[in-house]
Amino acid sequence: MQPAGQRAILDAARHEFAGRGYGAASIRDIARRAGVSLSAMYHYYSGKQELLHALLHESSVQYFASCDEELARAGEDAGERLAALVRATVRYRAERRLESSLLLTEWRHLSEDRLKEARQRQYDGSRLFHEVVDAGVSQGVFRTPHPEDARRGVIAMCNAVAQWYHEGGDVGVDELAERYVELALVLVEYRPAGSLPRRAR
Q1: Which of 2, 141, 175, 176 pairs as cysteine with 6 (C-beta 3.0–4.6 A)?
Q2: Torsion from C-alpha of 75, 162, 179, 82, nearest 10 degrees
Q3: pLDDT at res. 201
Q4: Dihedral-angle region of residue 36 (phi above 0 means left; psi in -120 to 50 means alpha; beta otherwise)
Q5: Exposed, middle or buried by CB within 10 Å (0-12, 13-18, 19+), for 170?
Q6: Short-list 190, 8, 194, CA closest to 82
Q7: Which pLDDT score is estimated for 18?
Q8: How many whole angstroms separate alpha carbon 34 and alpha carbon 41?
């Protein structure tokens, strides 16, 4: 459990980076928003670079944990496993829009060593979808003649949720996730032996 002051600093940095962009945000503004002194800020973090790295790392850990939880509930059918990844990604992008924005747009500001780590995480996220789509093609349940394009399309539409979704709109997160599951299965031309993948409970 992080101390309250450290949590407040991270929350303030998240909003400043997402609202102003990493380049325009200042340590002084982050400290002011967090309600702490600059000395307290530097007690936890050496500067913006370390703050950005901490936020991106935390966001990635939470996202992959969500994927693991959904995949653990899915069966071996590739359609169910793709549905699990889509649900996890859409829910994460909708419920954690600020974190998603940072993860998708601000990672390029990391230093070279940390940039390598961020790129690996991006690769790992893409690989989850890649493995499921490859499995679906091998199982004969994904009939698309363009599996790579379908995979990229599924990932892109899920990630875009963070850019437009607002809580309290006409569609709730769970319903949105199920709509995107249906769209994803259309893209890969899912043809199951039985019925469509079961809806999340």
Answers
A1: 2
A2: -20
A3: 46
A4: beta
A5: exposed
A6: 190
A7: 84
A8: 9
Other CB atoms within 10 Å distance of the CB of residue 94: 24
Which residues neighbour 175 within 8 Å (Cβ) at sequence distance 6 or greater? none
CA distances to 25, 32, 50, 79 from 38, in Å: 14, 8, 15, 51
Three-class SS of residue 190? Answer: strand
Instruction: Return d(Cα 78, Cα 189) in angstroms, integer.
Output: 12
- Strand, helix or coil for residue 150: helix
Tokens of 134: 């490859």
Q: pTM of the full predicted structure?
A: 0.85
The model's confidence at residue 4, banded by pLDDT at 50, 70 and 90, is confident
Whole-number pLDDT of residue 149: 97
Task: For the chain, give the mean pLDDT.
Answer: 89
Q: How far apart are CA 34 and CA 15, in angstroms?
A: 10
The SS3 call for residue 142 is: strand
Tokens of 73: 């509930």
The torsion angle over the Cα atoms of residues 143, 148, 154 and 159, rounded to 10 degrees, is 170
Q: What is the pLDDT of residues 54-72, one digit of tens each?
A: 988 888 899 999 999 999 9
The model's pLDDT over 14-28, given as tens digits with 9 standing for 90+, comes to: 999 988 888 899 999
Rg (CA), the chain: 19
